[in-house]
Amino acid sequence: MGLAGSALGWLSGNRTGFRLGDEALEPDTDVNRTWKPLGELAQMCLCVRRRTRPGTVPHDTASDLLCHAWRETRDGALLLAVQRLEPWAPYPLEVYAAFASAGLRNPAYERFAAGLVATRGWRTTEHLPNRLLSVLNSERRTGFTPHEATAAALRRTWLGGLPEPWTFERAAGYTLTHVVYHLTDWGDEPHRVPEDIADYLRIWLPVWIDGCVETQAWDLCCELLAVAASLPEPPPPELTDDAWQALALAQDASGALPEMGRGPNGEDVPRVFRNCYHSTLVAAFAATLTAARRPGAPDGGTTHRGVPA
C-alpha cells in the first residue's frame, strides 16, 4: 500500500476525531477544532474519490469518510443552522460546497444561501484576497453566480503579484497553495492557472519543496506538492521525487504524518490527532493527485520511485 493508501487507513481509523459535537453551534465554539477539520476531511476525500477508480481501496475509503462527514452535519441541517447564526461568515458555504460538489445537497440550505449571496451585505463583506477566491469558488461549486471576477481577486494575492522568490516563507506558502486550490477547484481544472503564474511556479516550487524537506515541514511540503500536480504542466518528476521519498520515511507505520518532523526546540512532535490529521489528509490528496497526473500511473497504484496513489 502506498503513502496515500496508508494515510487514508489512518484517517479511517481516526474518524472519531472528525466530529462536530454538541458545541458546533455554540457562539464561542472554536471552528478550527470543529468545522474546519470536518470540511477538510470532506474536501480531501472528494479529491481522492475523483481521482481513483470505484472498487479500489482508496476510492471506497474516501467515499466512506465523505459519507461520515456528511452524517456529522446531519445531512447539511447543521450547516443551515450555523449559517443562520452567522450569516456573513463564509465557512459554512465553503464546507457545504465540498459536499455539493460530491452530489450531497440540502435544499433548505441552498434556498437560504441563495438569498444570502444576493445581498449587498454578502457582496461587500471584506476578505483577504485568497479567502475571497475561496468564497467565489464555493459560490460557483454550489451553483451560484460568483459575485466578483476571479481574475481580479487573483492578481491581488501574493502569488498573483509574482513576488521575488526569496520572499517565500511559511505564511506565504500556505496562502499560495490555497490560491491555486481555489483557482483550479482543488486540482480538477489545471487550465485555469494563468501562463505567467504557471511558469513561475514550475521554476520555484521545487526549490521551496526542497526547503520544506530540509526543515521537515511535512504539512507545507505536501501542500506544495499538491500545487505542483495542479499546474497545466507539472514540474518534471525528478525534481520532486526526493521529497516523496522523504515523506514516505516520515510517515509512520500507522499511516500518520506529522505536520512537522521536529518541534520549535528540536523535540519530537507527538503523534496525536491534532498534530497529524491535516498533514495526513494533505498527503493523501497530494499523492493521489500526483499519481493521477503522471502518465501510466494506475489509480490506486504507485508510480516510479515510490510516489503513491
Keywords:
single chain, 309 residues, mainly alpha, 57% helix, DUF6895 domain-containing protein, DUF6895
Topology:
Elements lengths: L2 H11 L21 H16 L6 H16 L4 H9 L5 H11 L5 H11 L2 H5 L4 H14 L7 H5 L15 H15 L10 H21 L2 H11 L12 H10 L22 H21 L16
Protein name: DUF6895 domain-containing protein
Pfam family, one: DUF6895
Organism: Streptomyces ficellus
Beta-strand portion reads: under 5%
Please indicate the count of domains. Answer: 1
Order of helices and strands: HHHHHHHHHHHHHH
Shape: globular
Question: How would you sum up the major sheet?
Answer: none
Distance between the termini: 9 Å
Helix content: 55-70%
List segments where confidence is low: pLDDT < 50 over at least 5 consecutive residues.
297-305
Summed over residues and divided by their number, the pLDDT gives a mean of 92
What is the tally of helical segments? 14
Rg, nearest Å = 19 Å
Content-based structural category = mainly alpha
Task: Report the count of strand segments.
Answer: 0
Characterize the structure shown.
- With 309 residues, the chain is mainly alpha-helical.
- It has one domain (3-72, 157-306).
- 57% of the residues lie in helices and 0% in strands.
- The chain is built from 14 helices and no strands.
- The longest helix has 21 residues, at 195-215.
- Residues 297-305 have low confidence and may be disordered.
